[in-house]
């Protein structure tokens, strides 16, 4: 009866739940988002290195680097790599969308970049505004030392004629505001990339292009092919910018950030959001579908901006939950929810190496050991298997949920600091990744989560191992009996 109900549940999941989810995941926009974001990853990772170099978590060393002026150079490198991740996303998403449609993709990627820049107001607040007043930052020198307080700045500016005060405090125009090229512009970048990719492909498909004679080199002809779609898209984008400016006194990027991105980031950063993500990754895997890819595609547009926000706070020396640091970031997803592989199966690896008695467990454990160090566990998922295995379902679902819950709480209550924004590659071994993304306290906590995984998996693995050992013994006895029967016939 139990097997019948399990079979009915599996059939329900496979026939009713998974098909619409897979249909959504395999849509053109989601595929473009998933693969397009990959183009931003090298810049995110390299930029993270410059972030750490400019903010070494050793005060004495950090002070020396800052005084030497090298911190400013590292910050420059960080700003044009990790600091403009939304720009990379806008280019990559449109590029992949059009590439998947079978057309020349680079013009679409560049068009998307132009649209993304066109839709923002090209000015920044005057730095004097933030420097003025008792709560102002004041004026600092290259070493970061305050040379004039905020109050002193206000007092001196107040001595100027009113017209001159207004002039020196006016926004700086004719510049690109990198605020919207970073994490705050991510949802807008995703929308722009997808819409540009879709519109560009549709126009090319309908023949909206300038066709030159065959004698014209392909490199030149391709640019003329792109001219009409790019021109139409840019004109529409200009009209959208004009509408937001005229009727809303804002721009599209700021509007999307306030109305859409801020609430979604808050949802992704909640305890409930963390638990849902932690459960759904192994849930999809259990039924043989790549849970990491599905949830990564859905959550990356929100969790990567969370990482960026934390990096900015870390850079400013304000990385605390009280000052707005996010608990759930892309590194929370990669280096806790998926630590040692989906389901956090390191506990299962330890069991197979030190306590398993069955040949199947021992053999697969030896194969899985090295991949597990780099957060890869497909040998377990399909070789043991864990997929559709009721004996290991409970720890497989439970472990990442418990780890997500406990990690959220230790950060929330200040036991360990928030993640610092360093984008450690998902293959970075445990403990090392913990140190990189949060210092020695996070490395210790990550070690504790490995112990938790072992404690959760052990009793279930022991029971399953006993079943496998019994089956192997019965099979060996049957084979021996068959061999003896053959000998007697001879």
Automatic annotation (TrEMBL):
<dbReference type="GO" id="GO:0009401">
    <property type="term" value="P:phosphoenolpyruvate-dependent sugar phosphotransferase system"/>
</dbReference>
<keyword id="KW-0472">Membrane</keyword>
<feature type="transmembrane region" description="Helical">
    <location>
        <begin position="77"/>
        <end position="98"/>
    </location>
</feature>
<keyword id="KW-0813">Transport</keyword>
<keyword id="KW-1133">Transmembrane helix</keyword>
<feature type="transmembrane region" description="Helical">
    <location>
        <begin position="110"/>
        <end position="129"/>
    </location>
</feature>
<feature type="transmembrane region" description="Helical">
    <location>
        <begin position="224"/>
        <end position="250"/>
    </location>
</feature>
<dbReference type="InterPro" id="IPR003352">
    <property type="entry name" value="PTS_EIIC"/>
</dbReference>
<keyword id="KW-1003">Cell membrane</keyword>
<feature type="transmembrane region" description="Helical">
    <location>
        <begin position="271"/>
        <end position="304"/>
    </location>
</feature>
<feature type="domain" description="PTS EIIC type-3">
    <location>
        <begin position="13"/>
        <end position="460"/>
    </location>
</feature>
<dbReference type="InterPro" id="IPR051088">
    <property type="entry name" value="PTS_Sugar-EIIC/EIIB"/>
</dbReference>
<dbReference type="InterPro" id="IPR004501">
    <property type="entry name" value="PTS_EIIC_3"/>
</dbReference>
<feature type="transmembrane region" description="Helical">
    <location>
        <begin position="391"/>
        <end position="415"/>
    </location>
</feature>
<feature type="transmembrane region" description="Helical">
    <location>
        <begin position="336"/>
        <end position="356"/>
    </location>
</feature>
<dbReference type="GO" id="GO:0008982">
    <property type="term" value="F:protein-N(PI)-phosphohistidine-sugar phosphotransferase activity"/>
</dbReference>
<dbReference type="Pfam" id="PF02378">
    <property type="entry name" value="PTS_EIIC"/>
</dbReference>
<protein>
    <recommendedName>
        <fullName>Permease IIC component</fullName>
    </recommendedName>
</protein>
<comment type="function">
    <text>The phosphoenolpyruvate-dependent sugar phosphotransferase system (PTS), a major carbohydrate active -transport system, catalyzes the phosphorylation of incoming sugar substrates concomitant with their translocation across the cell membrane.</text>
</comment>
<keyword id="KW-0812">Transmembrane</keyword>
<feature type="transmembrane region" description="Helical">
    <location>
        <begin position="435"/>
        <end position="460"/>
    </location>
</feature>
<dbReference type="InterPro" id="IPR004796">
    <property type="entry name" value="PTS_IIC_cello"/>
</dbReference>
<feature type="transmembrane region" description="Helical">
    <location>
        <begin position="186"/>
        <end position="204"/>
    </location>
</feature>
<feature type="transmembrane region" description="Helical">
    <location>
        <begin position="39"/>
        <end position="65"/>
    </location>
</feature>
<dbReference type="GO" id="GO:1901264">
    <property type="term" value="P:carbohydrate derivative transport"/>
</dbReference>
<keyword id="KW-0762">Sugar transport</keyword>
<dbReference type="GO" id="GO:0005886">
    <property type="term" value="C:plasma membrane"/>
</dbReference>
């Amino acid at each position: 009866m139990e097997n019948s109900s399990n079979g009915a549940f599996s059939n329900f999941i496979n026939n009713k739940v998974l098909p619409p989810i897979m249909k959504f995941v395999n849509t053109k926009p989601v595929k473009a988002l998933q693969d397009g974001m990959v183009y931003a990853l090298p810049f995110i990772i390299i930029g993270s290195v410059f972030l750490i170099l400019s903010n070494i978590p050793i005060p004495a060393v950090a002070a020396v680097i800052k005084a030497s002026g090298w911190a400013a150079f590292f910050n420059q490198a960080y700003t044009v790599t990790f600091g403009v991740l939304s720009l990379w996303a806008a280019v990559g998403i449109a590029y992949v969308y059009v590439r998947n449609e079978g057309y020349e993709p680079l013009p679409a990627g560049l068009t998307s970049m132009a649209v993304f820049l066109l839709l923002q107001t090209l000015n920044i607040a005057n730095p004097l505004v933030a420097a003025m007043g008792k709560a102002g930052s004041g004026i600092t020198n290259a070493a970061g030392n305050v040379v004039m307080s905020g109050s002193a700045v206000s007092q001196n500016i107040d001595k100027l004629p009113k017209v001159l005060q207004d002039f020196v405090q006016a926004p700086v125009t004719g510049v690109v505001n990198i605020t919207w090229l970073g994490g705050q512009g991510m949802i807008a970048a995703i929308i722009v990339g997808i819409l540009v990719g879709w519109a560009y492909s549709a126009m090319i498909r309908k023949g909206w292009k300038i066709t030159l004679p065959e004698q014209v080199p392909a490199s030149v002809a391709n640019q003329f092919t792109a001219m009409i779609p790019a021109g139409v898209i840019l004109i529409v984008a200009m009209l959208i910018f004009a509408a937001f400016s005229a009727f809303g006194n804002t721009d599209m990027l700021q509007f999307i950030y306030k109305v859409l991105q801020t609430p979604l980031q808050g949802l992704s950063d909640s305890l409930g959001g963390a638990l849902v993500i932690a459960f759904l990754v192994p849930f999809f895997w259990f039924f043989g579908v790549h849970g990491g890819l599905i949830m990564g595609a859905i959550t990356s547009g929100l969790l990567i901006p969370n990482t960026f926000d934390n990096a900015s706070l870390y850079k400013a020396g304000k990385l605390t939950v009280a000052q707005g640091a996010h608990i759930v970031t892309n590194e929370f997803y990669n280096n806790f929810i998926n630590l040692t592989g989906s389901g956090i199966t390191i506990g299962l690896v330890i069991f197979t190496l030190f306590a398993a008695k069955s040949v199947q467990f021992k053999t697969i454990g030896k194969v899985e050991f090295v991949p597990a160090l780099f957060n890869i566990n497909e040998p377990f998922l399909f070789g043991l298997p864990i997929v559709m295995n009721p004996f290991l379902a409970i720890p497989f679902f439970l472990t990442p949920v418990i780890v997500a819950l406990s990690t959220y709480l230790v950060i929330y209550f200040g036991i360990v600091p928030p993640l610092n924004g360093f984008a450690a590659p998902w293959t970075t071994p445990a403990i090392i990744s913990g140190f990189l993304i949060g210092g020695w306290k996070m490395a210790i906590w990550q070690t504790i989560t490995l112990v938790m995984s072992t404690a959760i998996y052990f009793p279930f693995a022991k029971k399953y191992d006993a079943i496998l050992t019994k089956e192997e013994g019965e099979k060996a006895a049957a084979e021996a009996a068959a061999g003896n029967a053959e000998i007697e016939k001879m």
